[in-house]
Amino acid sequence: MAMIEETSAAGGPTAMLPAFRTVGLTKVYETGPVRVVALDSVDLTLQAGELTVLLGASGSGKSTLLNILGGLDHATSGQVWFRETELTRLGGRALTRYRRDHVGFVFQFYNLVPSLTSRENVRLVTDIAVDPMPAEEALDRVGLSHRMDHFPAQLSGGEQQRVAIARAIAKRPGVLLCDEPTGALDSRTGVQVLEVLDRVNAELGTTTVLITHNAMIRMMAHRVLRFADGQLVQEELNETRLSPSEIHW
Ligand SMILES: Nc1ncnc2c1ncn2[C@@H]1O[C@H](COP(=O)(O)OP(=O)(O)OP(=O)(O)O)[C@@H](O)[C@H]1O
């Protein structure tokens, strides 16, 4: 596989390329006689450096899309590009390398290793990344300098999610894919987590895709995509964005 160049929103040789493009992206799950079309010929473009919010009812295909963009799942048909690389042509090892080098994931539940401190959880990633930031810098970026040596059980839910974000960004990924990152948090804590994601997007230029059931969160996005029954049914650009602290739910 050709090297996939890192670039920031601010510039660089591939700055004008979209981060992702899909054409006719389709995913069908077949479980015995049951056939579910999770994604139904989706065409979309996600611009580099943007923060995109994905909305849609439960079962509309959001997680399936995120998993395919992140190289965790395969399309049934159609094409997906990350910058100049067609992900849908990559074999298993190349897809693993893509994921390792370019993608950070944040999920609703934090998946931290309970026996490791915040710093050690982040180091699990920085130890194997190509050009990581120090674990301490990653934790500082999410406002947790004072919690480096705490274990997950000694942290609040919001703090654990911020450790998970630090772990995801420490390898300086080109894209950060977040599936319901505030789903398990109260609104005040959720806002803090969104502020961290917003800051990472602005300061590091990380292309960010965020799934949420909370329609208010769309106000902080550059771009909002709405899904229904596996189809992209609406796309909006926010001319004026709200900062997370202005969002209430
Ligand atoms: N591994 C699987 N096997 C079979 N069907 C699946 C599988 N994963 C997802 N589906 C089905 O595909 C459809 C889309 O699911 P997906 O998880 O992408 O939706 P979603 O919009 O993310 O939903 P939610 O908001 O509830 O997380 C659903 O009908 C779901 O039941």
Compact summary:
Belongs to the ABC transporter superfamily. Macrolide exporter (TC 3.A.1.122) family. With 249 residues, this protein is of the alpha/beta class. Helix content is 27%, strand content 28%.
Key structural traits:
28% strand; alpha/beta; 249 residues; single chain; 10 strands; binds adenosine-5'-triphosphate; 6-stranded mixed β-sheet; Rossmann fold; 6 helices; cell membrane; MacB-like_ATP-bd
Task: Describe the structure in your own words.
- With 249 residues, the chain is α/β, with parallel strands linked by helices.
- The protein has one domain: Rossmann fold (3-Layer(aba) Sandwich), CATH 3.40.50.
- It has 6 helices and 10 strands.
- The chain has helices spanning 62-69, 92-102, 118-126, 135-141, 157-169, 187-204, and strands at residues 18-31, 34-47, 51-56, 77-82, 85-86, 103-106, 175-179, 207-211, 223-228, 231-237.
- The strands form 2 sheets. The chain has a 6-stranded mixed β-sheet, with helices on both faces. Strands 2-1-4-5 form a 4-stranded antiparallel β-sheet, covered by helices on one side.
- α3 (118-126) packs across α4.
- The longest helix has 18 residues, at 187-204.
- The chain is globular and about 50 Å long.
- The model is unreliable at 5-14 (pLDDT under 50).
- The structure holds adenosine-5'-triphosphate.
- The site of adenosine-5'-triphosphate (ATP) has 12 residues, from β1, β2 and α1.
- Keywords: ATP-binding, Cell inner membrane, Cell membrane, Membrane, Nucleotide-binding, Transport.
- GO terms for molecular function: ATP binding; ATP hydrolysis activity; transmembrane transporter activity.
- Belongs to the ABC transporter superfamily. Macrolide exporter (TC 3.A.1.122) family.
- One of its GO terms (cellular component) is membrane protein complex.
- Residues 20-249 form the ABC transporter domain.
